[in-house]
Input
Amino acid sequence: MNNTPVQQEIVKKYIDQLQIKDLGKASIREIVALINFIEEESKTKFIRMEMGVPGLPPAKVGVAAEINALESGVASIYPMMDGIKPLKYEASRFIKLFMDVDVEPASCIPTCGSMQGTFAALLVAGNVDSQKNTTLFIDPGFPVQKQQMTVMGHKYESFDVFDFRGEKLRAKLESYLSQGNINSMVYSNPNNPSWICMTEEELQIIGELATKYDVIVMEDLAYFGMDFRKDLYTPGKPPYQPSVAKYTDHYVLFISASKIFSYAGQRGAIMAISDALWNRQYENLQVRFGSKPFGFTIVMQVLYALSSGITHSTQHALAAMFKAASDGEFNFIEDVKEYGRKAKIMKDLFVSNGFQVVYEKDGDEPIADGFYFTIGYPGMTGGELLENLLYYGISAITLKNTGSEKEGLRACVSHVKRDQFDDLEKRLRLFNENFGH
Output
């Protein structure tokens, strides 16, 4: 392996310097720091697939609206805690037109990215019932949500959904929910990191069991509408973005501007709480926070304490982007289809050089091409594969880091440029020549 693009000594040096004991468990930010050091010393430009950040320009309609809002003087004014009225109205309208789900504007709350929304919702859900002290993650999933649980000191359990698709999901979920200690379930759809998409059958199972066991469902829609196998764009006409909201009335939806509008830097998202859950009174919330209603507690007790609302100008940007999409003037899905086109090319390059896609199907249907895909290589753990790929100037994160029980890596396509595909192909071919069986 002396012919690798990156000297092994450089890689090992910075792994030691950053005190990363196990690459298989390294955080995303640790991997980012590691690659930055290796790139600088080795003078080798990496194929960087470790960080899930947008690779497209921000939506112009949002930028224009935010500039206009700033010029009008909103920077000097505190916004209302529950959000400006135009945003609440447009968020509710967007959800109706693209999901066929009714959520009142009052229940649509802007948050500093979905990260703040999930933190607040998990914190409150963890206190609705003194007997229900545990959150269940349907993995694989976004690692930082579990870090949020650790910061809060809350308990959680998780399982890898890989072997429990379709009707098998029912018995698996029931094995947890029947214990009586689960207050909420969390999953992303489309999924980070595997890009699996829950089927209608699976969403119905989740919804039915949530109702049966009185559990709150938290649906992370960071990649809203990005299952490119279906045309989910036309406002007000099917097919719609699939959601558990069709099957239970105790849910929280998180819709982020970061990926669908390429607006990650402004930290804007909507937490949409079902009307039934918004108004529900919990005696234990009175004990913990001094107020009984779920929605009021999230906004006026938790979000108020966290940030006292989100950036005023960003709210105007969000309102404008939702409105333009709902009016049919801004096809945000067409804009982000580039991720799917790149994913197909990149997956083909990996597979043709000895790799396999780890999460490859939704039911009987091949998985969509999108923001992420998963890769494994015969005979290697995820940690071994990651370290070996670093010698070839290719970076990613391990699936173990996401709650997966499978060996392999999550690859993000967003920051891989098309002019890097030739380099990627050469490096993968060399990798396979050195490791192929």
